[in-house]
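Hi D.,

Good news: the full-assembly prediction came through. Inputs first.
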Amino acid sequence: MLILECPYCGVKGEETEFHAGGEAHLKRFGPGSSDADFETYLFMRENPKGVHLERWRHANGCGKWFHAARCTMTLEVFGTYSAQTYEPPQEIKDILTAKRPGWSWRNFK
Amino acid sequence: MSTRLTQGGRRIDRSKPVTFSFNGTRLKGYQGDTLASALLANDQMMMGRSFKYHRPRGVVASGAEEPNALMNMGEGGKFEPNQRATTTEIFDGLSAGSQNHWPSLEFDIGVVNNAFARFLPAGFYYKTFLFPRFAWKHIYEPFIRQSAGLGKAPDKETLDADTYEHFYFFADIAVIGGGLAGLQAAKTAALSGAKVLLMEQDPHWGGRSMVDGGELDGKPAAEYIAALVAELEGMENVTLRTRMMGAGVYDHGYLLGYERLRDHAPALVGPRHRLWKIRAGQIITATGAIERPLSFAGNDIPGVMLAGAVRDYIADYGVSAGDRVVVVTNNDDAYKTALAVKAAGLDVPVILDARAEGGGAIAAEARAMGIRVENGKGIAKVTGGKRVKSVKICAQAGEGAVLEEIACDAVAMSGGWSPVVHLWSHCGGKLLWDEEHAMFRPDETRPPLGADGAGFVIPAGAANGVMDMGVGLADADHAARKAVEALGLTPVDVSLPGFEQAAEAPLQPVWMMPQGAGPKLRMKAWLDYQNDVKVSDVQLAAREGYESVEHTKRYTTLGMATDQGKLSNINGLAVLSETLGQAIPATGTTTFRPPYTPISMGSIAGEARAEVFQPLRRTPMHDWHEANGAHWEPVGQWRRAYAYLRGGESVHEAVNREILATRESLGLLDASTLGKLIVKGPDAGKFLDMLYTNMMSTLKPGKCRYGLMCSENGFLSDDGVVVRLDEETFLCHTTTGGAERIHGHMEEWLQTEWWDWKVYVTNATEQWAQIGVVGPNSRKVLEKLGGVDVSKEALGFMEYTSGKLGGFDARIFRISFAGELSYEIAVPASQGAALWDTLFEAGAEFNATAYGTEAMHVMRAEKGFIMIGDETDGTIIPQDLGLSWAISKKKEDFLGKRAQEREFMVNPERWQLVGLETVDGSVIPDGAYAVAEGENANGQRNVQGRVTSTYYSPTLGKGIAMGLLHNGPERMGETVDFPGTDGKTYTAKVVSPVFYDPEGEKQNV
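Then the structure:
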């Protein structure tokens, strides 16, 4: 069972306090988008061995959504950050670069 | 024979006899005995029969690793199968029964399998039962089910009479194992200031050092341990628990502890087991080591035991395994058993040392005591059936030519010791093969990793492969220092006691005895006692291509069931490696999974049973329902009245009465469970336009609108009436089961997509009681209460007002789910019960009738209103249900809009909602399919639709239904066939789904 830190309320909680919400930084495609874009948005997901950026909700806590940078192989949690962003903040990228040199995830490096 | 010695037995109290029963026979033991030691004291060596061949089996070990001596324990509500006799402490009145035999342990019909053993090799059920095909279901499977399984399953109707609990704990350092290493590690950690939890699965501290420890600082090890335990008990930052097993290590320092509080003393009050949910900064696994058997023919005959177990029974319980004990070994450690047997005044006819060079100093000691020692020799075969009679000696290097037969009644074997690496491995700790000591031990450079990416498990002592006790103490101290440093504390220096380790001659791996054993011997050389897997089975698996150890495990069942191969795994994979001609580390191990030994289902459930299994949500009127014949229906965590039974009424009769009373005069519905979400803010309208398919931003304050919500994938997810309370505030009603889900859905979009929109959402479901006041007389009863004008002119259909209604702080919505003149009155939850009572008083003259969820369902179906979960199942879009009118054409975007433009969603072939009216007035069975001409590829009738809701309508006096039908709306008047599972076919006419008052004259008055 993972331990995650909610970046909003600062609580370090057990996994049972949180709900996993799938991949982070999805770009929404609505009416007018191509079938391919819409399909990618709705169904296509990363399945990395290593660095992954995910959405979590502090469901049994403050109720806020946030993002976590995590290693799917070692379960190391590199950091958690606000969900109100289009890309991981520089400090998270720096940690990833320090811990997993040469990391990349979708278009982020 | 096995018997109680006149002296010795550190754990037993000879002044306290205990009476227990085994297979119905009353036997005596002493307080402190395990069931296994007490049975041995009564010369009951045979304790069960094997799983597959029903061979007689005796106890092999003295601890948690025991594969054979599994018992059915207790009776009735206290019954539990598969309990290890070696870890069961006896008490007065204990009742145990051996397993896997019929009619008795001594005489067993199933032993016939033993005679057919050569026809039942590994994987026999994958090969043997293929043909003829019908035979599997009718002959083979029933036969296998009858003969398989170890213990008896508890009776399904009998509830567990005991209670269980969960317990949460946080520790800086959790130490698993209270042997010398664990105690020493705990001391170093505790003195360094860490909060320490130390657990030991056994009732006693000290582990193997109590038997084998010799002297520490010139004093018996037991004295050092007693002082160490006393010191730890006196420290505030240390929690100690015996009878508590470290069951499993999980991610990020999560650890399960399984504490057995009353198994040894059922008279104690309180829970039987306690499951500790522990979060530890660092975990030290001081879990010791387990001795390995040797693989020789007849090594499963009762009386063949692990050498360490033989001396445990002497030292701990004053019980001898036999009068003449042959010792067979590949290491020096087993010589201790010979010395212990000799010291107890019993005979050791011979020590067979498979090593050509023989043992070290201890071998000389044995010889000096007059024990015959044979180097380079092994056992070709053990003779005996239910008890060892003799061993036939051979050269280890040969093929099993018998040199000599020696009479004996017990064999003490040792193939070396394997560190208990289970808890290290549970969460990903890696192993390395130690060639010198022929064992897998933790690779400290590859530990399980925590949230910070650093290791959080540290092995110590024998569990780390350090078998030398003195070095083990230093290793434990080192492990604790490492753990303390990982926590950011400073380790203190702790002085360690002096220990003189006698020099040992090196172990020589022996995976088969003799090394050239032929097929006949290999077929009787057991690797896995519990699953009846022999050397020949693993070799067969390897020949048949099962080269991966995981495949071999599943093909042969090696290492499965309750002991999970604690004795068998290393020998098994060594045999596999040899057969495949590869090194042992190339074969690797199977995965170690928690729990370490089985834990009770009760402990996993904890307190969560019966009423407290899950919380019950109660509306303010719950007590009234209960007092008035409510027939309950669970809806989420709510309990709603399905109908209210009066007198001797059936549920069906009650539902019909409630419907007719409502349609004729006045019905009252507790609608409090309905979801009530408040959406507020300058952007609330814009937000709801995205969430609902309808346009909500144009709704005027004081007006209501029925809305549909879809997922981003286009499928209908929830529905309900939206009310605009004021310019910035909307009240969104959701389904009862959907309130939390839709609240979460709103929060998700607000927080993760439109986070700059100025909107707040809150779930006010439980803050309001809500009552449906329904029927032609509903207005009259509200007018009797007075205070708010609810006339047609003042409050039209789909309008909202608020005020003091009969003294209550009411929100009044004129909406209708039954198709009658109807109001929903919401009041603060604290006023709900009073309003409910008041409405019944005022409505008495109108025969005010409470109605339940079923009447509500029937009435909505009579009106053709859909129900989420009936008409929808996660694959239905609003367009399928004739709800295109509720989908805005003007909005550029809403959740689901893009998805509903996809090819499959606009396909005219999609099934569409229609009404269905049986030709003969009967009720179509729930879930029935409408069949079409022809058959599909599987030879089944083609289908063209299905029923989604079906009821008897008391209003219309016949069966009505709604369903989805291919081209439905164009087929009005046609008939369709619905075959039921009752053999009848129901023919129904396709009609409009609105059966009752299609013009809406009743609700608009």
